[in-house]
Amino acid sequence: MTTENTQATFINTQRIRFLSALVVVAAWLFARPCLCAQSDASVVFYDCRFLRDGNVQRLLQIEMPGDPPFEIRSITVSCFRHRKVSVHLVAVTGFSVRRMLYLNEYDTDERERVLALSIAEMVREAREWETHQLTVKAQSPRLAPSGKAHGTLFGGKRRWKDNGRALRSLGAAVAWQHMARMDALGPEVGFIRAYPVGLGWQISSSLLFGRDDTSAGTVKTMIASAGILPFMSWNHKRFVWRLGMGGRMGMVQMEGVPAQNSSMAGNALSGVFGGPLVMVDAALVLHRLHLSLGLELGYSFAAVLGHAPDKDIAVDARWIRPTFFSGFKF
Known about the structure:
This protein is α+β, with helices and mostly antiparallel strands.
């Protein structure tokens, strides 16, 4: 009987020791240090002779009387010359905030209170950041119970990338038309419409002026024309290259102005010209600006020919037409 009592006592003692060890381990795991109103977590001070550490700790618990616990890895207060203080707070979650305080204008009690207020505000900022992160994680999409994700892959109005291929541009250009027996220079206005598939069209209207000197006087030429041009386009980032084929047709008016010492009178001549053309163009498309440099090659089936004593002035056959276009994209 005595032996059985001894064994029972030994077993009970071992159970008590095991339970005590579990309580100690649980207390070590769950009682981690945190900065809150109920904790005595300390703030580490470096070279802060003008601050009283104990007063700062007491004021911290006064400034945060009812705040829930929030885990802080470290709070470091470093003091420099002229009572300049740097406060660095690092939370367990990885959030870090640093603040610089200038306490030279305060007396001793006010300095400690200002420091405590600043630390309490930084703790609340860290807590708000952690709350926001938890909210974002809770609102992130998750897999459905079936293991399949649900979501909308298409919806709303499609917006093409602003790369110059989808383009509406209205602007003006400077055009120079060179032919075998005359040259003309003048303004041009045009409208360009390009689609995202790489196709588009362009219309333009120009008014060019030419001047040729002869032995009998001066020949003034005016060319009014309009062209239409379907094209294909290729783009790289904000650069666009276009190649198109179309046609141009217009009116030509020539007028001979005799020299002062000439006995000959001047005459006027008018007619039409027009034919097919090929255009190559390189453009730069910015936010609202469209700049391009193009070259137009054409052949006129109709001709306007004017005769002067020593040379002929004609708008006929082949023409070369470089243009510089500047437009507003809308």
